[in-house]
Amino acid sequence: MKRKIAFIFPGQGAQYVGMGKDFAAAFPVAKETFQEADELLHMPLSRIIFEGPEELLVQTKHSQLAILVTSFAFLRVLQNQLTDLTPFVCAGLSLGEYTALLSSQKIGFAEVLSLVQKRAQFMQEACEKMSGTMAAILGLEGHQVEEGLRGIPGVWVANYNCPGQVVISGTKEGVEKGGEALKAKGAKRVLPLSVSGAFHSPLMELAQTSLQPYIEQTPLRDSPSALVMNVSGQVVESKEEIRKHLISQVTQSVRWEHGIRAIDQRGCDLYLEIGCGKTLSGMNRKIGVKGITLSLEKVADLELIAKEAATCNC
Question: For 52-94, what is each residue's pLDDT tens digit?
């Protein structure tokens, strides 16, 4: 019987200098993807990805595009090697939601590149105008973090990642006070994140307002693959609702754990994390999904995925 496969994609923060370079060297379709992105963006993005320097790559205006393009290059190689491998559902963490939209064939590469370029630009501008930060809270559940932050101004829940891992976002003072309150409530650790702003919080309102008209005018297509989105943590079907979720995602919480549980409830057999790092695979383990999770980050990972696919009539 054909098994159900989910494609899941990482977000900003997974980037590192040299990512995808082995794919570009080994597979023409990967090399062509990076070249196509350079041409469409009118900038040497691939050089920044492959050679750095790191301080340039980590800038929001570059890192978001870099993660999207690298993940898509991996996806193209995967589907070129395993032509029968198709997802029944796609999802992505924060920025990764745009790669999920692309992989589900609801948007074209040129269109999604243009959107992400605008998103990255507007978010970087918002960071420069509204100073903020983020921190990961380990050892508390989402509702405990919500209760612990109640009454503290300038801090919000940004990500419900997995059991025992929640991210908060806001002003530097708000996040500092929030972290202290959550330690008192029993948090095992409060880890400041190396980010340029308060993503997924009301401090990104300027970016959301600027991005909205571009999302509204971008054409979307029907496709057989379902899309689980961050804001609701559920499958979103209509084009109008997809647009609303993309817009609100800039300032709203990412309900990643909810989304993975929604996929799991649909009987997913195999999760493929496509892109840099193994963060999403780790979250799947903590969530306790019933299906297998494999990561595609290096060329060598293709062999393991091919073996798993060969056993399941994918």
Answer: 999 999 999 999 999 999 999 999 999 999 988 999 999 999 9
Amino acid at 199: F
- The domains found in the chain, sorted by start residue, are 5-127+202-310 (3.40.366.10), 133-192 (3.30.70.250)
pTM flag (> 0.85): yes
pLDDT in tens, 131-174: 999 999 999 999 999 999 999 999 999 999 999 999 999 999 99
DSSP secondary structure string for all residues of the chain: -PPPEEEEE--TT---TTTTHHHHHH-HHHHHHHHHHHHHHTS-HHHHHHH--HHHHTSHHHHHHHHHHHHHHHHHHHHHHSTT---SEEEESTTHHHHHHHHTTSS-HHHHHHHHHHHHHHHHHHHHHS--EEEEEES--HHHHHHHHTT-TTEEEEEEEETTEEEEEE-HHHHHHHHHHHHHTT-SEEEE---SS-TTSGGGHHHHHHHHHHHHHS-----SSEEEETTTTEE--SHHHHHHHHHHTTTS-B-HHHHHHHHHHTT--EEEEESSSSHHHHHHHHHT-SSEEEEE-STTHHHHHHHHHHTTT-
Name the residues annotated as catalytic: 94, 200
